[in-house]
Amino acid sequence: MKIGIDKIGFATSQYVLQMDDLAQSRGADPEKFSKGLLLNALSISPITDDIITLGASAADSILTEEDRASIDMVIVATESSVDQSKAAAVYVHSLLGIQPFARSVEMKEACYSATAALDYARLHVDKHPEAKVLVIASDIAKYGAETPGESTQGAGSVAMLITQNPHILELNDNTLAQTRDIMDFWRPNYSTTPYVNGMYSTKQYLDMLKTTWLEYQKRFETSLTDFAAFCFHLPFPKLALKGFNKIMDKSLPAELQEKLQENFENSILYSKQIGNIYTGSLFLGLLSLLENSQNLVAGDQIAFFSYGSGAVAEIFTGKLVEGFQNQLKASRLRELKERIVLSVEEYEKIFFEEAVLDEAGNASFANYKTGPFALKEIREHQRIYGKVND
């Protein structure tokens, strides 16, 4: 049975911080960000636009009423959870009006968990061929003002509908994962921002890529010659470029090297304008590749490197299906330019705002611009979500 990504959607916040403005405010050379990280801008999310609203917005952009009546599982992968008990998927299920007899769960393992969600979704569809599974990777990367990680923040969500006979990408069975118990990035329950060992994390990312890819080639008797593109987890595009250079085989025909390089450049276009979205970064790279590449055709194989600090990595592959181009959107880069540009002072106020609860556990918020959904209020410690115009 052919199982894979039938539809893919994306949502990000309505506000943006330009990296040149951040550099000027922090007394840094702008090229530290533009060349050192390959970042031009960061999506900045206000308190009313969180992983629930972003995830629901991403899914709402692709789902039909028939989909909502057929989906029997919703999985939200995140490391920005809003509740230690209630799954984000339950909120999203309600906002989207999905039929009630569906399983809704949340998954976590840093930036890797959306890949695990795909695995789970594929197994479910294999067992229940008529099923549709909604997988959402939704995160807000937040490190704090004037911290070392400030320049790799961001916000966004990628939604994927997993079905049999998909219209975009057929997932192959050959996958390989690797786990290492390391402390490169973590966020204890008592902290609102993560702890990061940046250089160590970069080395682990690259070494897990190298060792997993070598073992993958050995186990499945494959090589780069079998692929038209290679997508990477994108905490920032420059790290993915280092990964691309690490696996590039210089003995490949020049034409194939050029194709792989061109497709890599296309895969990082959106991340350059959005920043880090944790669990969704790899799949934002896929979306960017598909919507901007001029050389991909049905039948092309794409390889993926997923990485989540702590750490779990996985390499998996997929094949583009006939007509995949019809499921894509050509206007996304133009729409990103329509976000509201924030000054550094405005960014510091909006991005790091926290709810102030009264004695009864209530909080209200300013009327920030969001997508079709928003966090309306907190009432007796309950997060109340709804459509913007309701």
From TrEMBL:
Q: What are the residue boundaries of the Hydroxymethylglutaryl-coenzyme A synthase C-terminal domain, all occurrences included? A: 245-351
The record lists (3S)-3-hydroxy-3-methylglutaryl-CoA as bound by D29, Y143, K242, N276
Record-linked PANTHER family:
3-HYDROXY-3-METHYLGLUTARYL COENZYME A SYNTHASE, HYDROXYMETHYLGLUTARYL-COA SYNTHASE
Keywords associated with the record: Transferase
Origin: domain of life: Bacteria
**Source organism:** Streptococcus henryi
Q: What InterPro entries does the record point to?
A: HMG_CoA_synt_C_dom, HMG_CoA_synth_N, HMG_CoA_synthase_prok, Thiolase-like
Q: Which family does it belong to?
A: Belongs to the thiolase-like superfamily. HMG-CoA synthase family.
Q: What are the residue boundaries of the Hydroxymethylglutaryl-coenzyme A synthase N-terminal domain, all occurrences included?
A: 10-164
In Gene Ontology terms, what is one molecular function of this protein? hydroxymethylglutaryl-CoA synthase activity
Which GO BP terms apply?
A: acetyl-CoA metabolic process
Residues of the active site are: E79 (proton donor/acceptor), C111 (acyl-thioester intermediate), H233 (proton donor/acceptor)
Protein name, entry field: Hydroxymethylglutaryl-CoA synthase
